[in-house]
Design a protein that fits this description.
- It is built from two helices and no strands.
- By secondary structure, it is mainly alpha-helical.
- 58% of the residues lie in helices and 0% in strands.
- The protein has a domain of 26 residues.
Length: 57
C-alpha cells in the first residue's frame, strides 16, 4: 500500500517576510562559544587527579 504524496508547505507573503527577517537577524547575532575558561578548569582538575595517581585523558 502506497503512502499518498502530500504537498510541501510554502511560506508566502507576510509570513515569508517575517521569517526572512528573523533568519537574517539570527544570522547577524550568531556567535562563537569561548571555552577557554572551561579548558583551564579541566586542566587544573586533571593535574590534581594525576598528582593523586588517577589518570584522566
Amino acid at each position: 500500500m502506497a503512502i499518498p504524496i502530500r504537498s510541501v508547505p510554502v511560506l508566502e507573503g507576510k509570513v515569508w517576510e517575517r521569517f526572512e527577517k528573523a533568519a537574517r537577524e539570527a544570522e547577524k547575532k550568531r556567535g562563537t562559544i569561548d571555552i577557554t575558561e572551561n579548558v583551564k578548569i579541566f586542566n587544573k582538575m586533571r593535574d590534581e587527579a594525576r598528582s593523586r595517581g588517577i589518570y584522566i585523558g
